[in-house]
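Standup notes
- DV: blocked on the single-chain target, sequence here:
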Amino acid sequence: MPAGLVLDPATDVLGVVDLQPTFMPGGELPTAGGEEIVPGINRLLRERFRHAFATQDWHPPGHTSFASSHPGRKPYEVVSMPYGPQVLWPDHAVQGTPGADLHPGLDSGRVSLILRKGWRPELDSYSAFFENDGVTRTGLAGWLADRGARRLFLVGLAADFCVAWSAEDAVRAGFETVVIEDMTRAIALPQPDGGTSATLARGRLEAAGVRFVQSDGLA
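- DV (later): unblocked, structure below
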């Protein structure tokens, strides 16, 4: 992506994905360097984008995506659910806990919508647009359309799961989609082919037409 990508404040929207302590170092499901992106995201909110939303992972206790809900299973194992393969996670983003809050350093006054996802006990949700069954909508696409959004820029955690799934579904919903790469961090789970979930997700996004930019390439 060339430097100097010109933003349109009327139709460009920033999506801040799951910027929560549960995904930061010291949290229940930490992403290395997750806290490092908070100041940069605030700069984008204050200086670059007029419209923004944030997502918030918001699981009830005993959620089906937790390894602790499956006796004999360990975190990061993959199991088959009625809606497809599911990574089993450590308990995280549990409703009402400090880890589930939006990061206290986030300038949330610049965010006009906070969308909670993953609150159904039987169904996980990575994407900001759909639950993991790929059918149940969150309502975000309608909210964006009502505001005349044409292009969506995504930041947050984690790059290889909730950011990646949100980007894929944004394309599916008809939005031009850009990931601000230096304002994300990945979990990078090892894969059987020797790669990681981060490299796998990057390949999927590029194939879907998602573009990547650095934050200093936005004008």
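- Follow-up: The CA atoms of residues 84 and 133 lie 7 Å apart.
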